[in-house]
Batch of 3 targets.
Target 1
Amino acid sequence: MKVVILGCGRVGATLASRLDQTGHTVIIIDSNSNSFQRLDPSFQGERIQGNGIDEDILRRAGIETTDAFIAVTNGDNRNIMASQIAKQIFNVKKVVCRIYDPIRESTYNKLGIETICPTTIGADLLFKALMSHEDMQR
């Protein structure tokens, strides 16, 4: 599978390294070239420095022939915009977008963009952990 990842923070770098180690073709984009230092030293994929909402940068990453696009920058707006471009302009079949704001996540999910919201996931896990103690239940 060919995957383009926007954002080489902790999540993007970890995901890119895992995909690369399992034999997938990975292209990772980040505006800061220092971010690529987070990648596993054995990473064989392509690194592209640039703005992930720039169509020329996405074309350079091979977006037109990619199987999946994942946006995991720290900015909800950038992730949403890049995901919409990948889905609507380049017709990428699998597009996943990280969105921190639960209200935005719901809105964009309704528009057909697959979203992951760490805020909601984290709150759910913490709630379950807290409620798992018998003395904390009503």
Note: DSSP finds five helices and six strands in the chain.
Target 2
Amino acid sequence: MTAKSLSLNLCVGLTTLLATATVSAEKIPDEYKIGGFALGCQAYTFNRFSVFEAIEKTAQAGGKVIEFYPGQKLNPDQPDVKWDHNASAEIIQKVKDKLALHHLKAVNYGVVGIPKDEPGARQIFEFARKLGLYGITTESVESIDTIEKLVKEYDVRVGFHDHPKRANDLNYKMWDPHYILSVVKDRDRRIGSCADTGHWLTSGVDPVDALRILEGRIVSSHLKDRNVLGDPGHHDVPYGTGVGKIKEILDELKRQGFDGNISIEYEYHWENSLPEVTRCIGFVRDYTAAKK
């Protein structure tokens, strides 16, 4: 073998190795979008039911995508089997088959804790790769270095989620979009915010202002409309019927060129939220039709 052919073979081998080591996650195809938005449900909306039933109900509501969360029971026939990133290859294939049956795409997973240790974190990213997810949702700020390393390797986005401000825990800062920005601004562009607009409302944060603060860093959204501002007494309502500024939020996401997923996380009427979830999807469909 000549020196030239040996060099060529080494280059080819190195290229193959790099391609194997760097896994590129699927982007969200247009067929899974409604008026340009990848719209569906956070499975937590149907947490009184199983993963299989959440898939069915999301499809019945007219959704195109679904975001899973850890710990939901798999199906009515296997209530003791929990769905999370520890799932076996057999269980993952069952879920993928169920998604295909209902023409849905899994796009996100969370809220899930991502450990600092790379082997533990990698298990979550491997799960995302196997499902072809667009993103992962977390609040594990302390693991940012590990997250950034794996985001670069897997090309899977990570959005930091916001729960409401905690009066008894001043160390909790995730509710503040300025804090989220401080965490992600110097990091890989695939790391940003999972914008939970309802929790911002509870915290007294204008969701449209928050989106503008985080411009270019919105990975995904848990989009909520609420009957009243703040707490107590608030609950989710169909889009466009409350104080959640849903039209203005959609306008802002459009302006920013947002290409992540919008999850309806409807935390009201738990046993029978399907009619209201369907209305939420209808609102977005009508919004996009009016824009045209």
Note: The CA atoms of residues 116 and 143 lie 5 Å apart.
Target 3
Amino acid sequence: MVQLQAMKPTETVSLAENLERVRARMQAAQRRAGRTGEVTLVAVTKTVPGERIAEAYRAGVRDFGESRVQEFEEKCRQLVLPSAVWHLVGHLQSNKARRAAELFSCIDSLDSLRLAEKLSAAASAAERRLAVLIQVDLGEEATRFGVPPDELLTLVEQVAALEGLSVRGLMTIPPYLEPAERARPFFRRLRELAEELSRRQIPGVEMAELSMGMSHDFEVAIEEGATHVRLGTALFGERPDG
């Protein structure tokens, strides 16, 4: 098991300083937008070893995002982080839905009815209710996953009718754009879609969460209403994608 205290002081200071800087930038973005309330930092730990995850936990991070079920399954055997909340933020294949429903607290990348049905069956069998976010494809990129905006309402209504799932909001991954300001229309559109769904008052649907913004554009996302930002590089530095 990874021991939280078994970290080199220099490593702890480095990550802690990154975290402090990120939180300061998050708070500044909230002030610019006149927003109050908490924005959740989800530390994206794809390819990050267990020791570094434990270091982040000790520094105060509680929400973590993994992209691959198998990778997280291997890590969680080593980690004892009692109050950690684990988000699946990567694309989920339906044949891994059962295991994902057992391992994760939230599925932040739900994008099809077939996957929702698999997750619903797994969550119901485990006698639990699984929080999900619907991933929306706003960039119309062939390499991106997500439901198109014109199909979102239908999917939300279908998912809300399933047992074992709780629709908590939306997620998007816009194209990588520089400067980050160019991503603003995508974040604004996701907020507008969530507002439209909220007005419909669909039973079992609560548009409480907007997961949008990554290391290069999270400040713009917060200004447009993000409640969750997914940060990897800003905390852990550059990592291989492997």
Note: The radius of gyration is 18 Å.
